[in-house]
Protein: Lysosomal Pro-X carboxypeptidase
Amino acid sequence: MKQYQFIFFICLSLHLIESIHLVSTFSLRTPRKLIKLHSFARLASTDTKDIDTFFYKQTLDHFNYKPESYNTFDQRYLINFKYWGGANYSAPIFVYLGAEDAIDPSPYSVGFMIDNAPTFKALLVYIEHRYYGKSIPFGSREEAYKNASTLGYLNSAQALADYADVIIHIKKTLQAQNSPIVVIGGSYGGMLASWFRLKYPHLTIGALASSAPILSTDDIVHPNAYMDVVSRDFKEVSDTCYETILNSWSEIDRVTSETNGLSILSKKFNTCSPLNNSSELSHYLENMYVFAAQYNHPSSSPVTTICNGIDKASFGNDVLDKIYSGIVAFIGNDTCQINDPTSISETPISETDIETETRMGWGWQICSELVVRHGIGNDTMFRPSPFDLEKYISNCKEEYDVSPRSHWISTYYGGHNLKTILQRFGSNIIFSNGLQDPLSSGGILHDLSKSIVAIYTKKGSHCLDIQSSSPSDPVWLIKQRKQEVKIIKRWIAQYYTDLDALH
Structure:
C-alpha cells in the first residue's frame, strides 16, 4: 500500500472525480481506504525550515459594498525565501494558487517550483484558497459551512480577488514592485491560474495551468469524455482486464440477488463491515479505477498494477475473484479492504475536517458555479449512466438549497469559441496535460495563439509536470518540463526588456 500513497495527493482534484456520482446518488464521499491515502499528503513532510507562515486580513466580499462585506478573515499564505534574488534585482516571484484543500503539503508536493527556484532566483509563495485549511471566514469552520448564506462567499471569483490582494500585499511589504509574478496551479488550481492571468494581467506576466479542465463545465465537451479516457487507459494495458471489469457489474448484481447475496459479497471482498447494499462495493471499485487512471504515474503505473492483479487472478478464477485480486494488488493485503471504519481516525486529521472541507466545501462549489458534467456512455467498462442536468440541479437544491448556475463559468471566463476569444485578448498561458489523465478530456490540447500554448504528453498523468523531478523520470516528462521552463524564461526576459524600456 505504501508505494501508492504519494500519487493521490499531488494535485487535489479528486473531488472533481466525485462529481461523477452526483447525478445518481449525490455521493461526495471518497472511499474510506482512498481517503486515507489522499490525506497522507498532509503529513507528507515535516521539514518546514525554509517555509514561513503568514496571515493576511482578507476582505469577505470583494464585489459588494454592504457593511457585512467589509468583514475580514485570516487568509494563510506560505513563503520560501531561500532562493530569492531579492527586490533590488527584481527577482521573480512564483505564486502557487491553492485549490480545494489545505495549503500545507503544497511546498513539498509541487516540486516544480523548488526544482526551478535556484535557476530563476525566485521567491516561492503558496496562497491558501478561502474556506479551506486555516483560511476560514466567520470565525469557525462550523459557522462558515453553516448554510447557503455563509457558503455564498465561496466561489472562484472571490478566490481570484483574494489572490490579487495577497500578491499586492506581498509585493508592497517586500518592496518588490518590479518583481514579475508567475502564477502556477494544478487541476482546479490550474483553472484558477489561467483565469487569474485573464482577469488580472496587470499582476502576473504568465500562468502555468497544469491539468486544468477548463472546458469541463457547461456543454463544451461531451460529458462522457472523462470516463471514456478511464476505460481507454485500462483497455490499452489489457483487453482481458478491461473485459473482466466490464463483466463484473452484472456479476455483482447476480450475486446480490441470491439469498444472503450481500453477505457473500462482503466475505468475498473482505469488507471491514457488512455491505448494506451493492452500490457501496460498486462505487468503491469505480472510484479505485478512476483514481488509478487519473494518477497513473509512470514510476508506479497503478492501472498496470490493477490489471496485472486481475489477469493473474491470485484469489480465484471467477470474475469477482479476479476483481478482488486487482484490489489487493493495488491497495495491499490489509486485514480488510472496503468500508474501513479506521481509515480516517488513524490520522491526526479529524474526520470532521476532511468530510466538511471535501463534502461541504467542494460540494458547494460544484453545486453553485462549477457544474462539472460527467456521465458514463455505453462504450466503457462501466455501467452506463448518462449525465442528467435536471437531476443534478434537484440534488443540489436538496443538499444546499441552491440551483447551480450551469452557464456562469463560461459566461464569466469564456469557454465557447475559446481560441478566437483568447487570440484577441489573452497571452502567456501554458496549458499542460497528460493524455492518460481523464481530466485532459476537458483541457486545452492545442495552441490557442503564439503565447497561449498547449504542452501534453501521451503517457502523462494528472499534474505530473509540476511534481518534483526524479532520476527515474522518463525522457518525455523531462522534455515537457524543459519546454515549460523555456517558455517561462522567455516571459521573464521580455518583462525585463519592457521594464528597461520604461525606465
Remarks:
- Residues 23 and 391 are 6 Å apart (CA to CA).
